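Is zinc ion placement plausible here? Inputs below.
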Amino acid sequence: MSKLQSDLDRLAAESCASRAGNRCLLLPGNCIYFAATGIGRCGYFERSVLPADPSLQSRYAAQFQLESDQNIGTCASCGTSYEKRSNRQKYCGHCGESERRKRKAASERQRRAKQV
Ligand SMILES: [Zn+2]
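Reply from A.M.:
I modeled the complex. Tokens:
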């Protein structure tokens, strides 16, 4: 476990309003910074928790190369940060998939309704 990872875990445990124990209240499963699960990114943590610790924030930015990377979007559904593959992309991979499925189901329903 890296020092950065354990510091993120500690800050999330102390300061993140959506963390309960090791679990995340916004997303299913453990906090993305819970050290045992490995290091990831969380839009809520980056916006609302991380700025409280500027030195950790800059180490975090270096780890994820945030300054040089403009292609990071925040998911319109769950708030997670993700790598944008197009300018129109509004959701992270996970939510984009379920949004697509929802739209497909809706148009299927419409199509069926017209046939009757
Ligand atoms: Zn999402």
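Short version: Residues 75, 77-78, 80, 91-92, 94-95 surround zinc ion (CB under 6 Å).
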